[in-house]
Design brief:
This is Ectoine/hydroxyectoine ABC transporter permease subunit EhuD. With 205 residues, the chain is mainly α. 80% of the residues lie in helices and 0% in strands.
Length: 205
């Protein structure tokens, strides 16, 4: 049990840091895809679609087993965070896009009438309103990422599943360790989803 709890902490770390990476990169992709330059939108669009349409496990294996051959080697946990962040950034970018598109056109027009610089328009007018709309959806992806962390065991990250498998390989008892891992996922994921629903109801008022 202590080993599984240690794995839980690693799982939570991977989820938190992966979420931060996905939030930051997702916003970059969303803004880049609204660029007026095809030299920006085309490469970003191709990259986003490629990542979105390939399995996360394949991406993790590429980062962990292929990149070291090119001189880019990271620890298993760092590789897992990068993989989770990159993969989910392609989904959070769509969330940001929907939030930005949901800002009333009058807000853009008002910013133009006030002669606000484009950067100021984004940071002071558009993004604050968009963020308010997308928080619940971003939270849902955090939960989804949390439930995908067992894939990190495939690149030797000592998360909950990795620890459970190690215990099972020693004791030849798979029922108890795997069941505990499943229960821990439910105990964390379900209350979090309830909190997100309450937050969504509060934000849409």
């Amino acid at each position: 049990m202590p080993d599984i709890l240690k794995g839980l902490w690693i799982t939570v770390q991977a989820t938190i840091y992966g979420s931060l990476v996905s939030f930051a990169l997702g916003l970059v992709w969303a803004v880049a895809l609204r660029s007026r330059s095809r030299w920006v939108t085309w490469p970003v669009s191709i990259f986003v679609e490629f990542i979105r349409n390939t399995p996360l496990l394949v991406q993790l294996f590429f980062l962990f087993f292929v990149l070291p051959g090119w001189g880019l080697a990271f620890s298993p946990l760092t590789t897992g965070v990068i993989g989770l962040g990159l993969h989910y950034s392609t989904y959070t970018s769509e969330v940001y896009r929907a939030g930005i598109d949901g800002v009333p056109p009058g807000q853009w027009e008002a910013a133009t009438a006030l002669s606000l610089p484009r950067r100021r328009t984004w940071t002071a007018v558009i993004l604050p309103q968009a963020f308010r709309r997308v928080v619940p959806a971003l939270g849902n992806y955090v939960i989804a990422m949390f439930k995908d962390t067992p894939l990190l065991a495939g690149i030797t990250v000592a998360d909950m599943l990795f620890q459970a498998n190690s215990i099972s390989a020693t004791t030849f008892d798979y029922l108890e360790p795997i069941t505990i891992v499943g229960i821990l996922f439910v105990v964390i994921s379900y209350p979090t989803s309830l909190l997100l629903r309450a937050l969504e109801r509060r934000l849409v008022r």
